[in-house]
Write a structure and sequence with these properties.
It is a single chain. This protein is mainly α and about 90 residues long. About 65% of the residues lie in helices and about 0% in strands. It contains 4 helices and no strands. It has helices spanning about 5-20, 30-45, 60-70, 75-90. The protein is elongated, with a radius of gyration of 28 Å.
Amino acid sequence: MSLKKTDLAKNMALKLDGRMKATGVPSRFAKGAAEIASQREQRRREASPRAVAITCKLPPELAKRLRERALNHDGGVSGVMAEALTQWLG
């Protein structure tokens, strides 16, 4: 005996419901949610409170020189730019 279309859909829904009940609650909604929030807080604390993002367009050759100098600098591109602007505005 074959199943009717509605019976087949009902059985599939019951299977799906059973699988959903068998799996646990994802960590983003349970205990892991507090952990994610604490990671967010830690990132916020680690970020420099006075750092402001600035976008500028540079000629390709100047950008290449900046990247080359940033390879040997501890602060990277941001550190080189901060140092250069400090000296220039100084």
